[in-house]
Write a structure and sequence with these properties.
Number of strands: 18
Structural class: alpha+beta
Number of helices: 11
Helix content: 25-40%
Distance between the termini: 7 Å
EC number: 2.3.1.97
Protein name: Glycylpeptide N-tetradecanoyltransferase
CATH architecture of the largest domain: 3-Layer(aba) Sandwich
Organism: Vitis rotundifolia
Region (Disordered): 1-30
Domain Glycylpeptide N-tetradecanoyltransferase C-terminal: 244-422
Length: 434
């Protein structure tokens, strides 16, 4: 996620009223969306000084049918790519962060834990574990040089961080090698130093040196120009704790005991053949996922190495379950979620909120509703407090039924140096970025 990322924040507080509440039915929804984006972009004018110089879809071009889909700028010869790093302010220096090093990983962990994304009310902050960071930053074919830090020269203190990892992303019929850009974080005391644009330019330079010219990223703010805007939904697993820490609040005319009862789940899963994914399942899961993801306009392109890395269960990082037919032993369905806790700020009773985030789910024989209910049951059994899901892929079909509530944060998806003529609906997106 880049820039001010989507917050870990709360599902039902401060929800802004629907700006289209008084609109007549015949109003064109696309114009409403465009008007909102332009309004938001005017508010964020400062941010856009940088983005308006970059090869990204610009607000003024939305709906311009004369512009072709695909790369905005063609690759330049590698010999013409800037060979030296961009200049930092005098007191700082670039470093490459070796995530394999325990000491370095700890420094990155501390920087993110104390300075990364918070909700609007500063009650929660993402708390990526070291195991999660290693998983997120070392996929097949990763480049160490894309894990970039900024240190204070004198004290050697790490004060900023940005990363890229390689990914193959299919856009309609074209498979494009891209960088997924993530973890842009600048120490709170240095937010006025305009380090972020330099860091984005530096990671872009290093990506170009590997002859890769496109990137994907997400942010919680509107930049030029989202390819899709998604909504986070939250499903309470431990409603008492969520209410106690201020993540959610007691509904009107609801008591705590009624709320606990409302969100209660069965003790055990109901689908025959539902079990944890194992190494020998990788080929079958890959086939299942590739077939499923082929229906979306933009989707990740996964091979067996990717599936083994991203989806084979790792304790407190990623969980994957599948349905193996008791009769034929065929793998028919799959669900997964990753673990991203948040630090609870300023609460005497709790320090951490354990959150599961829906990842990739495929239903062919088991109804998606039933499959996801089983995922909720295993998450509850593993002491997760909340289960989060974006309305991407087919997720919208189960959210309300399974008692998810809409969050107050939006997550905007972006492509760098790649134009889509029109924004996608979340259901056309087969991509989850960490």
């Amino acid at each position: 996620m880049v820039d001010d990322n989507n917050s870990p924040g709360s599902p039902d507080k401060n929800r802004s009223p629907n700006p289209d509440g008084n609109a007549s039915p015949e109003n064109d929804a696309a114009i409403d969306v465009l008007a909102r984006k332009v309004q938001e972009s005017l508010v964020l004018g400062k941010t856009h000084k940088f983005w308006e110089t970059q090869p990204v879809g610009q607000f003024k071009d939305i709906g311009n049918t004369s512009l072709a889909e695909g790369p905005i700028e063609q690759p330049t010869p590698l010999s013409e790519v800037k060979q030296e790093p961009y200049n930092l302010p005098n007191l700082y220096e670039w470093i490459t962060c070796d995530i394999d090093s325990e000491e370095m990983c700890m420094e990155v962990y501390k920087l993110l834990t104390n300075n990364y994304v918070e909700d609007d009310e500063n009650m929660f902050r993402f708390n990526y574990s070291k195991e999660f960071l290693r998983w997120a930053l070392r996929p097949p074919g990763y480049f160490k040089s894309w894990h970039i830090g900024v240190r204070v020269k004198s004290s050697k203190k790490l004060v900023a961080f940005i990363t890229g990892v390689p990914a193959r992303i299919r856009v309609r019929d074209d498979i494009v090698t891209m960088a997924e850009i993530n973890f842009l974080c600048v120490h709170k005391k240095l937010r006025s130093k305009r380090l972020a644009p330099v860091m984005i330019k530096e990671v872009t330079r290093r990506v170009h040196l590997e002859n890769i010219w496109q990137a994907a990223y997400t942010a919680g703010v509107v930049l030029p120009t989202p390819i899709s805007t998604c909504q986070y939904w939250h499903r309470s697993l431990n409603p008492k704790k969520l209410i106690d820490v201020g993540f959610s609040r007691l509904g009107a005319r609801m008591t705590m005991s009624r709320t606990i009862k409302l969100y209660k789940l069965p003790d055990s899963t109901v689908t025959p053949g539902f079990r944890q994914m194992e190494l020998h399942d990788v080929p079958a899961v890959t086939r299942l996922l590739r077939n499923y993801l082929s229906q979306f306009a933009v989707a990740v392109d996964l091979d067996e190495n990717d599936v083994e890395h991203w989806l084979l269960p790792t304790e407190n990082v990623v969980d994957s379950y599948l349905v193996e037919s008791p009769e034929t032993h065929e793998i028919t369905d799959f669900c997964s979620f990753y673990t991203l806790p948040s630090t609870v700020l300023g609460n005497q009773n709790y320090s951490t909120l354990k959150a599961a985030y829906s990842y990739y789910n495929v239903s062919t024989k088991t109804p998606l509703l039933q499959l996801m209910n089983d995922a909720l049951i295993v998450a509850k059994r593993k002491d997760y407090d909340v289960f989060n899901a974006l309305d991407v892929m087919q997720n919208e079909t189960f959210l309300k039924e399974l008692k998810f509530g809409p969050g107050d944060g939006k997550l905007h998806y972006y492509l760098y140096n790649y134009r889509l003529r029109n924004p996608l609906k979340p259901a056309e997106l087969g991509l989850v970025l960490l």
